[in-house]
Write the structure tokens for this entry.
Amino acid sequence: MFAEFLKKLVQPNPPRLADVDARLALAALLVRVARADGQYDPAEIEKIETVLKDRYGLPPAEATALRTQAETLEEEAPDTVRFTRAIKDAVPYEDRESVIEGLWAVVLADGTRDHDEDTLLRLVANLLGVNDRDSALARQRVEAKQS
């Protein structure tokens, strides 16, 4: 279903993604990070939908549909390194930086910082070109909102 999209995404010099494709790719990253610990909790699913609603101004049904598509894409997507690097090349920095905040929101949705999720998020942030400091600041903003 997503073969053509993924083929375009992982070519040597991917074109900048259309908004709808960028949404899908970034939503798939949210799903990948949520699944990193081997559990995909209802709290994480709800947080992914909240991030998508807030980030893109989507009504609940559209956020759910996007998350569902992202789950399928995440399963079909190549390894995290290639997938994330392709997104970095195709998505502007300011979008990548704000995605890190969304990723932290998903990681922290279940109330714990799992080692596997934490490790994957560090890798994803680095591959997206977001430095450790900006990632830590994004995490702190999410933690402050949750308090």
